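User: Histidine N-alpha-methyltransferase, Usitatibacter palustris:
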Amino acid sequence: MSSVVHLKKPAADARGYSIVHRPGKAIVDERAEVVAGLLAAPARIAPKYFYDELGCALYGAICQLPEYYPTRTEIAIFRDFRSEIAEAVGQGGQFVDLGAGDCCKAEAWLPFLNPARYLAVDIAGPEIERALSRMAPDFPGTELVGVVTDFTHGVDLEGLLDEREVTFFYPGSSIGNFSPEDARALLASIHRACATRPGSGLLIGVDGKKEKALLDAAYDDALGVTASFNRNILLHLNRRFGFDFALDAFTHRGFYNETAGRVEMHLEAVSEQVVKARGYERTFAKGERIHTENSYKYTPGEVAALLQDSGFTRTRRWSSPGDGYSVFYAS
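Assistant: Predicted structure for Histidine N-alpha-methyltransferase:
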């Protein structure tokens, strides 16, 4: 005689949702991580530090800019192919929203997919708590769980998923923020969670390679919102770790590196600056750059190979005209 065992669910309170805080797969001393990056040559800051409260708001503004095509292009694909995508994904089960932010993209899918459990996974706790508070009255039949964690070293939701099928949702071409090697590792961790739950899969949006002028404009807009977003990472480090960066001493650089197949964002020192914080000191020469983000662009064939290398064996694809942006469902 066999029996089905369900994991104990995180307890939702009167708000209609629950919040779980858990360490990422890799235990990281974040201040040491930041210092090591700043001491490197060239200096670098991990893009996860963009997303304090102000950074989340600025990113939301970027997504509305006329130059920033990925968001509206992906939304158009979701709208035009919603029935086909919903049929591929299936209804019920569990829906995991990676890098959920304000949860708006996933929220649009919930009425069509009717998951029993929705997990909003993000490093920005206040952002997902506000989102779940907004969503709770509209989805009383769905268990809403916010998971505050850093999944950049791999997805680990042990104890939060049961044996039912799960759909991982990773929109916005956020996979492009990882190097191909790290993207492969992240996707492999998602595949491992899918492999033990029949009927599971990954719904992911990926931006394609295109003209340099279009990409340069998308990451260096005329209003300077992306520049403010980039410089805000320094303000976040000042507040969180006690650095003394002068924001006006750095200017934003965003451009497409055609050889590497990626957009790069940097902060360039406009004059020499000495940055200090609790025993740490680093001199930045005029013109020296801090590398803050990459956004790799992929052809559809490159995405298919990346998914296959990560363990997925079946894919479906929906794309914008000219294959400039694609949505994949991999299982």
